[in-house]
Design brief:
The chain is an alpha/beta fold. It is 43% helix and 16% strand. Helix 2 links the parallel strand 1 and strand 2. The structure holds pyridoxal-5'-phosphate.
Length: 231
């Protein structure tokens, strides 16, 4: 079996090749390693390999992990991106440790974030999560509602709009979904010049995502190995 360091190195090579094929610079693409369900030791191991940007999807898990990490590596400067669906009552907690939220997916969450950021006198970088499933019961903003929702974000001075986040559907060619996300990102950019980022691409599809303009890859199991089941 391969080790974390071997897989990390392999994924880095594949990112570089995909950037080369797409005619893009490696520096345009940030790799976020998703360490969810894994103990803090894995983040420490990746840190020792030179990695700095981590992704997590449960408030309780990451708030604890970020604290443990800070104890183990007191001088370390790392980022924790929140990438999962967030309950509004966790907004207060998330703004304490998250460098960015990739999953802003509804106006009730936006309102609570605004409220908590006001109280904390703080700011948060956010990506609007698109719903590409066509099923409005799933999380995320329908592409047709993107402009309207983006106005709400842009009217929130404490939310710093970064761009769009998307997860490709399970049983479709990711190209279809990534094309929709790319178009949405272009629309957003006409509204806000700083909203130039596109968070998409996971273990199974990050090379395609690079081809479609992804700037933030969220790669978990291809680097970390299989996830232990969450409690
Ligand atoms: C778990 C997760 C990932 C990483 O998934 P892998 O398939 O393990 O690479 C990326 N994005 C989101 C939103 C996730 O929840």
């Amino acid at each position: 079996m391969s080790s974390v360091s071997e897989r990390y190195e392999q994924i880095e090579q594949r990112i570089q090749s995909a950037c080369g094929l797409a005619g893009r610079s490696r520096s345009e693409v940030e790799l976020i390693v998703v360490t969810k369900n894994h103990p803090v030791d894995l983040a420490v191991e990746l840190f020792d390999l030179g990695h700095r940007n981590f992704g997590e999807n449960k408030d309780q898990e990451v708030s604890q992990k970020a604290q443990e990490f800070a104890l183990l590596k007191p001088q370390a400067v790392v980022t924790w991106s929140f990438i999962g669906q967030l309950q509004s009552n966790k907004a207060k907690s998330v703004i304490r440790y998250a460098s960015s939220l990739h999953s802003l997916d509804r106006s009730s969450l936006l309102k609570e974030l605004n409220k908590q950021l006001e109280i904390a006198d703080s700011e948060l970088r956010v990506f609007i999560e698109l719903n590409l499933t066509g099923d409005s019961n799933r999380g995320g903003i329908q592409p047709d509602n993107l402009v309207e929702f983006a106005h709400l974000v842009l009217d929130s001075p404490r939310l710093k709009l970064q761009g769009v986040m998307a997860v490709a559907g399970l049983n479709v060619d990711p190209r279809q979904d990534f094309e929709i996300a790319r178009t949405a990102a272009e629309t957003l950019l006409t509204m806000e010049p700083d909203a130039k980022y596109l968070s998409m691409g996971m273990s199974e599809d990050f090379e395609v995502a690079i081809d479609f303009g992804a700037t933030h890859l969220r790669v978990g199991s291809a680097i970390t190995g299989p996830r232990p089941q969450s409690a």
